[in-house]
# Entry
Amino acid sequence: MRMFRKPLTLTNCRVSSQIKRGKYGIDGILFDINGETVIKYDISQNYDIQNGILEVKLEESYRPNKYSDHQVGFDDVAESYMSTRILETGITSDVVIDGWSHYDKIIPLDRIVKFLIARDTYLLKIPKLKYAGSTPSWDVCISLAMYLKLCEKIENFEEKLHVATEIGDQIRGNLQKLDTEIRKGHYFSKYLIPLLQSLHSLHDELELAYNISKLGYNIRFGGRGEPDYFIDITAVEQKSRFPELEHILEEKLPSSFQYNEALRDLIFEIKQYKKGLSRANVFFYNVSRLVKSFKFYAGTELVKMGPNAKSFNLADMFSNFRIMMKSLFIFLEKGRVVVPYVKLYSIDPKIICPFPVPEDAFDVIAREKSKPYVI
# Structure
């Protein structure tokens, strides 16, 4: 079982949380950050357990509802919603609603939500797993609708719509199979994993493109057979890591934070960099769903805000996406580069990214992963 949803980081803010418990375990989770509910997630109306057998109660389709200027979710999931403030800065619920209404014809978001509710319900009801995600699996439908809308003005956006249409066709072709699997009580159907991977991969490509474009760079999407993007004439590939959930649960956050160690661990997690660089000069690798990435993100934020923080310090320099993008083209003068990056749900949502790693340096790292390595 793979990890697809992103962690929620709660640094430098006022946080309160509640867990709703029912007769059969956890039924819901609520997070307030700085006085605003950013996640309200409740499955109490969506299941029944008789004689130890779980039955999930689902609607055929779900439409998003606007709860406030920054809260959007679903009425039919016991009033569950999330805040756009943890997705991107300055984005309102209307952007999500508009994107959903327009692009649901391309990707059947309305009908996908039910399978993600079923998945989360099953996860919450596995006693031996003791699992409760801080974010619901349907978060990808909310944020994908948002990024489709936000990327409309990026050059060659039509190419991404072709990809989205192919994903939508694949999903529509498997809807009946997914329905049949759920009726049999198979909540982790073999048809669900590729669906989730396709949705999250597209989401992450759009998310990175939007964050590059809002810095003012001339970015366009690549066509068929081309790299994922071009920044001016620089070819760029992007890939995301979806680790196994068992691997996530085995790892623990450290009691203290050492920046060099956290950065080294982050770089060690990058896979397939040779394949990425065979198609492009820059290989962006999204490691947001790894525990090591959560450690890197939270640690750099705490260092910047700690008692020894300065107006400009090492942690800021090595984690600022704007600075990284400026340095990227300096590094490119000497060859191809790899860029690991992290984008989590946060009250201050942003990409955190160390300096680009030249290909030859990465070759050394790949050979010596078992040895101490200091950037």
Notes: The longest helix spans residues 157-183. The chain has a mean pLDDT of 85.
